[in-house]
Design brief:
428 residues, alpha/beta, 14 helices, 26 strands, binds uridine-diphosphate-N-acetylglucosamine
């Protein structure tokens, strides 16, 4: 298994091209199941999760072709052509779904187009139980019969789905994606209430609209979808990754220096950038993207609670925690989206961080210095927080189980290395 070796202490200077968003690319790829025409996606990040989803979609009969690089500022992404001319299998088996939770989302388009789907329950996950009850209730409301058989969700709608009022008990990104996709091919109007407002929802709605769907209100808590009988092919660029942007912004704040995050969009990152300024970094919007600097100033402690968009994202919680381990004072970070999303705490402690957990609140007392150590990546966002901590620690940090990083961060060692970090991949 690959490992990442970091020798901390170097400042970051230069520029980093921000990739397309993983969390937008995955639902967009899944939307290809809704049409027998070709969906072309530009600026798709080269990530292990994308490769895994190509395999999963291939299992259903989606022909997936890589068309090469897209020129322009986010030039590292792939252009993918996805053609689901014929769905050959409406079953998503356990061995594939268990590897990536988002693959459960195929249930929406498969059911809407083929009127049946048999999708494995995703199973447990390192960051809590992550149930699928909202998906099941939403699809039932749209007229599906649903049974759970031998660990599979079996959904049938022999006469097709019909529009309805779907109200989520709490905000769910995945359930909102699935409800939007399913409603696009349902008969009549669907109103999705308490919908997620994440930019990735807006991106999927924009793509579905290009495919012929009638959607309004995406980005607000109430989304209206007027169902249509058939969707067509389309061409759509994946929006920039706000979590990757925030991660590198926090890394620069940790090491000090001056980095332009090329292609990054400020409108996707209001709250994290505000928090970063409060901690003591200078953040400016430039023609190229977002410029983050920290020169000489210490880091101030903060009080932050994770929330659905536009609040502070749970996907940046671990990175924020790594940063404030070096603050001049005590920070409090409250996690409200996922239970058990604090696995990075014990690893950060190995580097000398002083963190006390009480339920969903982490109290982080800033320490004068961190010292490098071997650490273990436990999930995607936790693992990148260890990279940030390693960059700010004295001496050598080895991050084990790097495959978690490769799921969500494209060429992280190249991007950071080009800005002066002492970081390398040690291949197994
Ligand atoms: C997505 C993101 C993930 C991010 C999360 C929250 C992708 C591929 N993943 O995950 O990176 O951390 O949003 O911003 O886009 N819930 C239920 N029942 C359900 C569905 C969800 O109780 O049927 C709960 C979850 O356990 C969690 C909360 O709702 O506590 C929010 O989860 P959700 O927004 O659904 O997360 P994902 O879509 O899986």
């Amino acid at each position: 298994m690959d490992r990442i070796r970091i020798v901390g202490g170097n400042r970051l200077n230069g520029s980093i091209a921000i990739s397309g968003a993983k969390n937008a690319a995955l639902p967009l790829m899944i939307a290809s199941l809704l049409t027998d025409e070709t969906l072309t996606l530009e600026n798709v990040p080269r990530l292990a999760d994308v490769a895994m989803l190509k395999r999963i979609l291939g299992n259903h009969g989606v022909d997936c072709m890589v068309m090469g690089k897209r020129p322009g500022q986010n030039g590292s992404g792939e252009t993918l052509q996805l053609s689901a001319r014929e769905i050959v299998d409406t079953e998503a088996p356990y061995d594939l779904v268990s590897r990536m939770r988002a693959s459960f989302w195929v249930i929406g388009p498969l059911l809407a187009r083929m009127r049946e789907a048999r999708v494995s329950l995703p199973g447990g996950c390192a960051i809590g139980t992550r149930p699928v009850d909202f998906f099941i209730d939403a699809l039932k409301t749209l007229g599906a019969d649903i049974d759970i058989e031998s660990g599979y969700v079996v959904a049938r709608a022999p006469k097709g789905l019909r529009g309805a009022r779907v109200r989520f008990p709490r905000v769910s990104v995945g359930a909102t994606h699935v409800a939007m996709m399913a409603a696009s091919l349902a008969k009549g109007e669907t109103v999705i209430e308490n919908a997620a407002r994440e930019p990735e929802i807006v991106d999927l709605a924009a793509c579905l609209t290009k495919m012929g769907a009638e959607i309004s209100g995406a980005g607000t808590a109430t989304i209206h979808v007027q169902g249509t009988e058939r969707l067509t092919g389309a061409r759509h660029p994946v929006l920039p990754d706000r979590i990757e942007t925030g991660t590198y912004a926090f890394a620069v704040a940790m090491t000090g220096g001056d980095v332009v995050l090329e292609g990054a969009s400020e409108s996707l990152l209001g709250e994290p950038l505000r928090v970063l300024s409060e901690i003591g970094a200078d953040v400016d919007v430039t023609n190229e993207g977002i410029r983050v600097r920290r020169n000489g100033h210490g880091l101030s402690p903060v009080e932050v609670t994770t929330e659905p968009f536009p609040g502070f994202p749970t996907d940046l919680q671990a990175q924020l925690m790594a940063l404030v381990t070096r603050a001049d004072g005590t920070s409090h970070i409250r996690e409200t989206i996922f239970e058990n999303r604090f696995m990075h705490v014990q690893e950060l402690a190995r580097l000398g961080a002083d963190i006390h957990l009480d339920g969903q609140v982490a109290t982080v007392k800033g320490v004068g210095r961190l010292k490098g150590a071997p650490v273990m990546a436990t999930d995607l966002r936790a693992s990148v927080s260890l990279v940030i901590a390693g960059l700010g620690a004295e001496g050598e940090t080895i991050v084990n189980r790097v495959y978690h990083l490769d799921r969500g961060f494209e060429r992280i060692e190249d991007k950071l290395g080009a800005c002066g970090a002492a970081i390398e991949r040690l291949s197994a």
